[in-house]
Write a structure and sequence with these properties.
With 258 residues, this protein is an alpha/beta fold. It has one domain (3-252): TIM Barrel, CATH 3.20.20.140. Helix content is 40%, strand content 17%. The chain has an 8-stranded parallel beta sheet with strand order 1-2-3-4-5-6-7-8. The longest helix is centred in the middle third of the chain and has 17 residues, at 105-121.
């Protein structure tokens, strides 16, 4: 039995300061690989350094939609940084109308640039969307995101949004939120998404799953996400682990035994 954490931030201070133990816990909990996701260009060198140091850690490059005052990355810059062989995705990118208000056209333009960069370099997208599902799907369609595909990370939308993303060739990734008792909408989606389109993640250090809710999250806990999905779908956790690992390998074009 093995699991892959498709989205974490182990370069963040709460985790990187104890990185050897974080990785040891992964091994003890059958988590074979993790994707450390970039949120800004200033910290990107730390993200890449972890992927270069550890064979079983991968990385992405991108600027999160919440980072309003960041220097906007050009398409060319994102493509250049994505040439490194351990960079397997562009993002995280997307739209977030929950934390920020006002004229958010800059956010939409940043999202477009990430999609264009992904198409140019041929690497999949990691998409964040919060309180912005309609615009997110619209821009994905307008910019032909289906040419590269990707993942809707930490999915919190309804089944209709999931369907629209799947039709564009995207995977749906579930975080520890799916283990929360009141997350009925997400539990419903987790039962309906085809197994060959599901990924699992921690989004650590955030969103620790039950039974660690409210505590510091880490990649080792992704197995609890798999266990909840198995329970919801009435299949074995081994089946979830195998399917989501194969999905990760197929989407990001990395060998499973790496």
């Amino acid at each position: 039995m093995a699991f892959i954490d498709s989205h974490c931030h182990i370069n963040f201070p709460d985790l990187v300061g104890n990185i050897d133990e974080v990785l040891a816990q992964m091994q003890r909990n059958d988590v074979t690989n993790a994707l450390c996701v970039s949120v800004n260009l200033a910290d990107f060198p730390q993200v890449l350094a972890l992927a270069e140091r550890f064979e079983h850690i991968y990385a992405s490059v991108g600027v999160h939609p919440d980072y309003e005052d960041e220097l906007e990355p050009s398409v060319g810059e994102l493509v250049r940084l994505a040439q490194h062989p351990k960079i397997i995705a562009i993002g995280e990118t997307g739209l977030d109308y929950f934390r920020l208000t006002g004229d958010l056209e800059w956010q939409r333009e940043r999202f477009r640039n990430h999609i264009r960069a992904a198409r140019e370099c041929g690497k999949p997208l990691i998409i964040h969307t919060r309180s912005a599902a309609e615009d997110t799907i619209r821009i994905m369609r307008e910019e032909q995101a289906q040419q590269v595909g990707g993942v809707m990370h930490c999915f919190t939308e309804n089944w209709e949004v999931a369907q629209a993303a799947i039709e564009l060739g995207f995977y749906i990734s579930f975080s520890g939120i799916v283990t929360f008792k009141n997350a009925t909408q997400i539990k419903d989606v987790a039962q309906r998404v085809p197994l060959e389109r599901i990924l699992i993640e921690t989004d650590s250090p955030y969103l620790a799953p039950v039974p660690y809710r409210g505590k510091l999250n880490q990649p080792a806990y992704v197995k609890h996400v798999a266990e909840e999905i198995a329970l919801l779908r009435r299949i074995s956790v081994e089946e979830v682990g195998t399917a989501t690992s194969e999905n990760f390998s197929r989407l990001f074009r990395v060998p499973m035994d790496s």
